[in-house]
Design brief:
The complex is a heterodimer. In chain A, 0% of the residues lie in helices and 50% in strands. The N and C termini of chain A lie far apart (38 Å). Chain A is mainly β. Chain B has no helices and eleven strands. Helices cover 0% and strands 57% of the residues of chain B. The chains are: A mainly beta, B mainly beta. Chains A and B meet through β5, β6 and β10 of A and β5, β9 and β10 of B.
Chain lengths: 115, 114
């Protein structure tokens, strides 16, 4: 079974608008971390934002926020005021307390920002 | 940005030859990882290290070995390259190994096995 599911292979958003990238996860651990990474066309993996399973508030980092709904096991990334430079692949990822050091990645969502 | 470099950045090799990829960090982090990225699979862990000379297997370790003789360097060796090992390889580091520790990635190495 997929542990991280990103159901949107590709998305379009108009410049300056907000966009939500979906991520659902599956774990039986009580303690886990959720991460979002950005991969532009140049190929590097850029860390964007982190949410801990015990964090009561949603994480925010500049224009990025994580809409964490623990009961629904979802960790959606919200990008506000989209910019052309936001066009990239976005990966949701999880580390579990019992996961043995590895980070589990979803298949990714490709975001296209239109001018 | 985390100080992580990978070499080479691109490599073309032939089936059956050994290949070594190098990851170098300047952050003095204890944990280092090798992942491969393939279309439709996201990133998958090959091997990781939790200290000098301390390494362990990830989920796709067959055909790969690793070594870590210094804190800053983590080597990935394809003992006899196969076409199925054509991929993009990423090194990552983290200060700790717990679930809240963020992994930071190097720029990646594109490997083509002919």
């Amino acid at each position: 079974a997929q542990k991280i599911t990103q159901t949107q292979p590709g998305m379009f958003v108009q410049e300056k608008e907000a966009v939500t990238l979906d991520c659902t996860y599956d774990t039986s651990d009580q303690s886990y971390g959720l991460f979002w990474y950005k991969q532009p066309s140049s190929g590097e993996m850029i860390f964007l934002i982190y949410q801990g399973s015990y964090d009561e508030q949603n994480a925010t980092e500049g224009r990025y926020s994580l809409n964490f709904q623990k009961a629904r096991k979802s960790a959606n990334l919200v990008i506000s005021a989209s910019q052309l430079g936001d066009s990239a692949m976005y990966f949701c990822a999880m580390r579990e307390a019992t996961g043995g050091f590895k980070t589990i990645f979803g298949a990714g969502t490709r975001l296209f920002v239109k001018a | 940005d985390a100080g992580i470099t990978q070499s080479p950045r691109h490599k073309v090799t032939e089936t059956g030859t050994p290949v070594t990829l190098r990851c170098h960090q300047t952050e003095n982090h204890r944990y280092m990882y090798w992942y491969r990225q393939d279309p439709g699979h996201g990133l998958r862990l090959i091997h990781y290290s939790y200290g000098v000379k301390d390494t362990d297997k990830g989920e796709v370790s067959d055909g790969y070995s690793v070594s870590r003789s210094k804190t800053e360097d983590f080597l990935l060796t394809l003992e006899s390259a196969t076409s199925s090992q054509t991929s993009v390889y990423f090194c990552a580091i983290s200060a700790g190994g717990r679930e809240q520790e963020t992994q930071y990635f190097g720029p990646g190495t594109r490997l083509l096995v002919l």
